[in-house]
Inverse folding.
């Protein structure tokens, strides 16, 4: 089992990339948020056996990562960490759908394998785009963007506090587990009873902390919503980025870009 | 408010689960005074301090800040003039960066942007933490967290500073810096602490709490010299 606290620290690492100053980072969070949402909709809207047509979509996150100077390896590592879920979702498709739909160099390919591959690709595209958004905008930037786009204030406030206190909670959890390990027989895992008690205490402590944080917020004039955090400024570059991205998605979705690209490639070869 | 006085009269409070925490506390703290609040664990110090900013409201008796009694209706006014520094800075630093956290109070007061900016800059400078402005709070050291939390309170420009064990968890140097910093403030100060040396350094007057009652109230030198009294109160 991956250690939850190290996993959280890594999310912190991803977020600290968001402090960079590149053309991608300077874009308004709203522009990136809308573009990413449109991207996800585009990726999932293809027919379920589509593979080739999905490929050009990779250009979008790859371009953002390259301009935003985010290491590809980091995003790749997260995708690998999360990939078992995608595999589980699609693993039965090859068994259920055995209709042969294509031949690749003498190999008969069934619809099931194509849709499985398609699921993996879409997973990589959508999760990759979300991680890219996070690395190029930062958690707080994304929250601010959501707030300005009309997400309920209470929700945005909760997201912000979640991000702040999940680290504190993880630290407390890690300390509890360590304290248990130091006083228990080496190697013997905790019994269900002990785990239950530890989890219960953690929950109670989290609840107490919630009350204390709320007092501290009230003491400084909190009235139910965190005020606009960062002033966002929409510039021409944002409009250009958004229109460009949407046009690109439309071209991929309806203009059969991959076929076009393939034909171009063939022609230059000849 | 012309006078930054704090007054409690026959203050009683029981927690919702029935624990009686305060059983009749009375005192009056004048403008500009610096008062230490000492007592064993569970004596009721934190509970008392939560009454001074209206986070808890008395079951019986009254608390007045300036000319204003602390009630549901006067909370905004009271919280404007009383700045509270909580025991665990983690509870107090809830915004994504130190700068945004310091701005939290002023923004809630609906101050114009330039005024918020001025206050953030000045309070960070007052605690010597300008360089922490863009940092997320969870990566700060204990002393830095404490400084940031104090800046967040100073930014509201309160008349009265209330502190719950401000020196707990600090190393000796951070502790010395903190004491020097607090000494420089001209506010009316109320400081709960186990750190009797800090109280000696910082406060001319000391109130001893014991099981929810005031056991002694007088000049710090006299009160903290009374070994019998202190031993009787578990100190
Ligand atoms: N949230 C709570 N619910 C019930 N009892 C509490 C709560 N907080 C504190 N108490 C009780 O109130 C009493 C006073 O506590 P507190 O004010 O925290 O003391 P101090 O800060 O002096 O150590 C203690 O007996 C404590 O157990
Ligand atoms: Mg206490």
């Amino acid at each position: 089992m991956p250690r939850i606290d190290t996993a959280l620290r890594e999310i912190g690492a991803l977020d600290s990339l968001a402090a960079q100053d590149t053309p991608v980072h300077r874009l308004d969070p709203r522009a990136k948020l809308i573009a990413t949402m449109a991207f996800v909709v585009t990726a999932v809207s293809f027919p379920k056996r589509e593979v080739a047509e999905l490929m050009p979509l990779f250009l979008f996150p790859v371009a953002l990562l390259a301009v935003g100077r985010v290491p590809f390896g980091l995003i790749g590592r997260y995708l690998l960490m999360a990939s078992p879920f995608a595999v589980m979702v699609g693993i039965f498709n090859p068994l259920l759908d055995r209709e042969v739909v294509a031949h690749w160099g003498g190999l008969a390919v069934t619809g099931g394998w194509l849709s499985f591959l398609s699921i993996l690709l879409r997973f990589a595209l959508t999760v990759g785009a979300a991680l890219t958004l996070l690395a190029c905008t930062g958690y707080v930037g994304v929250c601010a963007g959501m707030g300005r786009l009309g997400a309920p204030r209470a929700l945005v406030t909760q997201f912000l506090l979640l991000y702040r206190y999940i680290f504190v909670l993880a630290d407390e959890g890690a300390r509890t587990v360590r304290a248990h390990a130091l006083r228990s027989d080496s190697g013997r895992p905790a019994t269900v009873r002990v785990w239950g008690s530890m989890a219960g205490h953690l929950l109670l402590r989290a609840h107490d902390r919630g009350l204390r944080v709320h007092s501290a917020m009230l003491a400084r004039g909190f009235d139910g919503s965190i005020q606009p955090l960062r002033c966002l400024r929409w510039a021409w570059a944002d409009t250009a980025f958004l229109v460009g991205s949407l046009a690109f998605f439309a071209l991929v979705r309806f203009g059969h870009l991959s076929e076009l690209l393939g034909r171009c490639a063939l022609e230059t070869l000849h | 408010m012309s006078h930054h006085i704090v007054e409690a009269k026959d203050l009683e409070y029981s927690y919702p689960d029935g624990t009686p925490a305060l059983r009749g506390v009375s005192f009056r703290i004048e403008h500009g005074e610096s008062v230490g609040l000492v007592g064993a664990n569970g004596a009721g110090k934190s509970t008392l301090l939560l009454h001074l900013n209206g986070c808890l409201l008395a079951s019986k008796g009254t608390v007045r800040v300036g000319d204003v009694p602390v009630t549901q209706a006067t909370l905004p006014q009271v919280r404007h003039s009383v700045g509270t520094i909580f025991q665990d800075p983690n509870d107090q630093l809830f915004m994504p960066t130190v700068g945004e956290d310091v701005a939290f109070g002023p923004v809630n007061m609906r101050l114009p942007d330039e005024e918020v900016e001025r206050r953030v800059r000045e309070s960070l400078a007052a605690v010597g933490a300008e360089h922490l402005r863009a940092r997320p709070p969870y990566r700060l050291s204990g002393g830095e967290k404490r400084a940031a939390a104090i800046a967040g309170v100073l930014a509201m420009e309160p008349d009265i500073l209330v502190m719950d064990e401000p020196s707990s968890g600090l190393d000796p140097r951070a502790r010395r810096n903190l004491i020097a910093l607090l000494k420089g403030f001209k506010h009316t100060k109320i400081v709960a602490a186990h750190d009797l040396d800090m109280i000696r350094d910082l406060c001319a007057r000391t109130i001893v709490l014991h099981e929810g009652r005031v056991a002694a109230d007088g000049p710090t030198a006299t009160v903290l010299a009374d070994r019998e009294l202190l031993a009787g109160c578990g100190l």
